[in-house]
Structure formats: C-alpha cells, structure tokens
Design a protein that fits this description.
alpha+beta, 2 domains, two-stranded antiparallel sheet, about 20% helix
Amino acid sequence: MPELQRSVFVIPPEHYKNGRPHVQILNDVAWSVVQECRGMHKEFVFVWRRERVKNFDDEPAMEYAPGGTMNNTGHQEARGQSGCKESASTI
C-alpha cells in the first residue's frame, strides 16, 4: 500500500465467515521474514520440505510444499523454541 508505505497481505474472502477479504499490514519484522521466505515456492510464501539426514550434496528429497496447518510439528517446535507455549487453537 503505497499510501501507508507498507506492504500488506490480502487474505481471500473464502477464509472468513463473512465472505469479505481482509488486509493484514506487516510490521518490519514480519516483512523481513516474508522476504527471507520468498522464492522457495512459485505460489506460496511459507513452505517446508523434508530435509535429508544423509547424502547432503544430493538434490532435496522433496520439493518445497505449503504447510497444511498451524499446529503441525514444525510450528509446535518453533513455538517451543520461542518460549510461546500456547497451542494454535488458543492463538
């Protein structure tokens, strides 16, 4: 949004009960995280892939794919490392 001098995410209406799109304004920290994640996948920003545990020089075992939920193992581990103990259902 040039008038705010901020980048935003527009969340599509199908993700809300009222059927209206929502705009999420990003602060500097959120924007830097998004920028670090860009380019890993052609469509999605936040993605994951199964990492190799051996043969590190080979191509990845899997391509990057979008995460399915906010309460998967990766999110649980990240919340634990950050000190945030709440479950995704309470956030």
